[in-house]
Amino acid sequence: MLTLLDKQGIVHDLSPAYSHESNGVAERYNRTIITAARALLTGLPLALWAEAIATGVYLRNRLPH
Asked: DSSP letters along 10-44, please?
C-alpha cells in the first residue's frame, strides 16, 4: 500500500490512536454536520435527530467545496 501511495504522490501520515482531536479536518466536518442538524430541527421533535444528521450529510456532500 505504501508503494502505491508513494507512486501516486500521496503523503500518508499516521495519527496517534484514540486521539481524534488531532484531525482538525474531520472535527470541523463533524461540527458542520451537527450545526446543520440543529438548524434543520428548529421547531421539530428531537426524535428526528437521525434524519436531520442524514439530511445534513446528504446536503454537505452535494455542495461545491
From this structure: -------TT-GGG-HHHHHHHHHHHHHHHHHTTTS
